[in-house]
Amino acid sequence: MYRDPENSWKIHFEPSTIETIDRAVLNYIKGLELFADTNTGWREVPVIWGTAERAYQVKNKKDIRDSQGMLILPLMTIERKQITKDMASKGVFQGNVYENSDEQGGALTTSRVIYQEKTMKFANADSKRLHGQLNFPRCNGKVVYKTVSAPMPVNVSVGYEVTIRTEYQQQMNDLLQPFITSPGTINYITLLEAGHRYEGFVQPDFSSNNNLGDFSTDERRFESKITLNVVGYLVGQGDNREKPHYSIRENAVEVKIPRERISLQEVPEWERGGYYGLAGFLSKSGREGCPPGMLLSNVPAINSAGTSGEGGSVNIQNFSQVMSDNFVVREVLKAKGTDPVGDGRTHTTSNVIRPNTELLFRNGLVMAVGADFDYTVSNGNKITLDDVLVAEDSLYVTYIIA
Questions:
Q1: How many CB atoms lie within 10 A of CB 134?
Q2: 3-class SS at 146?
Q3: Are residues 330 and 229 in the same domain?
Q4: Does 114 reside within a domain?
Q5: Are 22 and 133 in contact (CB under 8 A)?
Q6: DSSP class of residue 281?
Q7: Other Cβ atoms closer than 10 A to 49
Q8: Which domain holds residue 40?
């Protein structure tokens, strides 16, 4: 288990493999802590995994053999007998879920929490640009989630055989009884290993075998076999898996589209080199609970000088001045009741008009621009009407200064 220091949630680093199930069974048997009365006193009975090499057993567990290499009884051995992939037993997932095709893989989401550190950074960055200070109280729609996913688990049924070998009947009685009574009146047990949980079922038949009937000179021996069926699951392909045993992903909270003219160092004059870019449109979940006016954060960036002048940013303090310096509202070209100027068709503005930003009002109605319509614009500040004004006409224009 690993606990993320930034969040109170856990990640299972260990996948569920066949060896994980084996260790869970071995831990359960050892966890019973069975003792027996022997010639050397009351001592714990050793548990041996039956598939280990004999050379390894001799070197690693010298206390289970005598000076002649014979096993010292009593002892218990565990052996895995079979593995069955039962298609009728699929657990909670009745259908197959394919993994993601990217390099991380993962099919099922096991955990999803808020990534506090990155969410805080987005909130502080927007607060600094919008309000000039960090941690300003505002609705933050840029929430970063950390999602952990794992491959699809496959259910398997694994059979184990636990063999108890003793020299005396009393030893066998002492060791056999906990397997019958520890699950209670049922045969269900829980097996735990590496954060995984498996279900085990102790079978009701306890077969016995001994050599008391032949009255030979062989060493007296008692033997009982206990069958344990485990319903487990396997995740991934173990050490042969190329992708990680689990994957961690973070969601995108904003999308920025860089302009081609920026890469070519062609800065438009109306942006003054300080346009921040698309800060992103919030999803429906991100808009819930946010008051109007806080759904977008398209905020100009501060230039290297940090000023509001050439190349600077527009903020609450300088907004009015920037508007008055660049935006002309209802400039009078002809007032109602006055005589037309010149030929009554051509009028000149006091500033050069930024192309396609003007709104021309004749008697309160918006005129359409174009040679086939109401007027045309030439030389940046000359407006030519398609017909002649009369004394009762009024003409106003609103535009952005070039």
A1: 11
A2: strand
A3: no
A4: no
A5: no
A6: -
A7: 16
A8: 17-89+152-234
Alpha-carbon span 9 to 116, nearest angstrom: 13
* pLDDT tens per residue, range 143-164: 999 998 888 888 999 999 999 9
In the listed set 184, 202, 234, which residue is the last one of a domain according to the structure?
Answer: 234
Nearest CA to 88 out of 152, 153, 181, 156 is that of: 156
Burial (Cβ within 10 Å: 0-12, 13-18, ≥19) of residue 53: exposed
Query: Is position 101 within any domain?
Result: no
For residues 28 and 17, what is the distance between their CA atoms, to the nearest angstrom?
Answer: 17
What dihedral angle (degrees, nearest 10) is formed by the CA atoms of 344, 349, 354, 357?
A: -60
- Whether 228 is covered by a domain: the verdict is yes
For residues 292 and 278, give the distance between their C-alpha atoms in angstroms, rounded to a whole number: 18
Q: Give the number of other CB atoms < 10 A from CB of residue 349.
A: 18
Residue 279 lies in a domain: no
Residues 6+ apart with CB under 8 A from 252: none
CATH code of the domain covering residue 33: 3.30.2000.40
User: What is the rounded end-to-end Cα distance, in angstroms, of the chain?
Assistant: 64
Q: What integer pLDDT is reported at residue 62 of this predicted model?
A: 63
Closest by CA position to 70, among listed 180, 240, 221:
221
The helix/strand/coil state of 181 is helix
Strand partners, 80: 160
Q: Are residues 21 and 162 in the same domain?
A: yes
How do beta strands 247-250 and 145-150 pair? antiparallel
**Residues lower than pLDDT 70 in the chain:** 1-13, 51-69, 91-92, 212-219, 257-315
- 57 and 198 co-located in one domain: yes
